[in-house]
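okkk here we go again. third time trying to get the pyridoxal-5'-phosphate bound version out, last two times i messed up the smiles copy paste (missing a bracket lol). double checked this time i swear
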Amino acid sequence: LRPAKTIPPAAAPVSVGDLFRGATGLFRQDGPDIIADGIRNHFGSESVFLVSSGKTALLLILKGLHAIRPRRKVLIPAYTCYSVPSAIRRAGLEIVLCDVDPETLDFNYAQLERLADDGTLCVVSTHLFGIPSDVERARRICEAKGIYLVEDAAQAMGVPHRGRFLGTFGDTGFFSLGRGKNITCGNGGIILTSSAEISASIMSRLHELRPEPLAVMIRGMAEAALTKVFLNPFLYWLPRGLPFLGIGETTFAPAFPTFRLGRFGAGVLRSWKERLEAHNGYRAKNGRHYAEALGLRDGLSIHCRPTPYLRFPVYAKTPEAKIEACDRLGSLGVSPMYPDSVNRIKDLRRYFGESRYPGAEWIAGRLMTLPTHAILSAGDLDRICAVITAYCETNAPKEPAICRKS
Ligand SMILES: Cc1ncc(COP(=O)(O)O)c(C=O)c1O
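finally!!
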């Protein structure tokens, strides 16, 4: 434990006012419904459901879709959050991996086309860091084969795309309200759909969910208050240095708790719209700054768009350079993302045998992220830009083109 200014890799700050609204929300039974109505209107989605996390949202979606169409395969990117395979296993369905293109952080579409078949229930199209994936292309592949398109917009709440919002292009989609997402209420997830059939099916699974137990609500309140205090860069070294807190860890754990979103969380979300616009504004501005200052604008397509990056992705020159950069520059918020591709998660390896996902494995070895949140000062941004160039590719790396061919 070394007390030193430490910038969190991702942060969705909550104010004292938000915590106060959370506490007063405890006395309002209609709090979650009011938030769901506001989200429905803003995103133009017919149905909105609020649950305890993004993975609970995905679990309910999968169960809801499977009840309508009893297919078993769920096609996901081979590089994604471990919560996604956790929810699929929890739903008792089969994980099918599609390789990821390092230039776009999106599917290898030639492979997606080959993998999608009449046993596929859905394709989960993921907007990693808020970068829009090619949902139109995924939809064309899905429609031809009677496959549902699910949008994983866990990291993309409030991101506009072609006159709509990400999360509303698929048959159904979800956002995460976890710590470090676009906005947070501690833990939470939002399901969106405009299909009456899918909505009815998800609704009947939602009725099976318990309301948030009191102990979980109290723990959520304590965590929200502590997060408010310890996101301060002059205090963040403390939770970051305590390994048992597992800050920033991503684990494959299908036995996660599932509830409906509680009243405290709904109270914290009362100012969701203003917070979302303000914080996504900071993220877009800081992302633009990195792209320009690091000379990335003419390189990979992930750097060529105005996106409210939840974290700004860069590739290290080598896997060794990534480890060194994250180690030396961790106090500047430079951080690895998921530790490995999904096929190499210990508990899942047996399902994928010798199958290789070269794009996803390349990404896992090189991807690191720079912070974009509102807590960053202009001086922090300059310091990060000054030191990161020694470790990262500032021109389009050669390898991604090779990865894409497979
Ligand atoms: C891409 C992606 N999908 C799904 C999830 C799951 O969300 P949650 O952590 O709220 O369960 C996350 C969040 O970590 C995520 O980043």
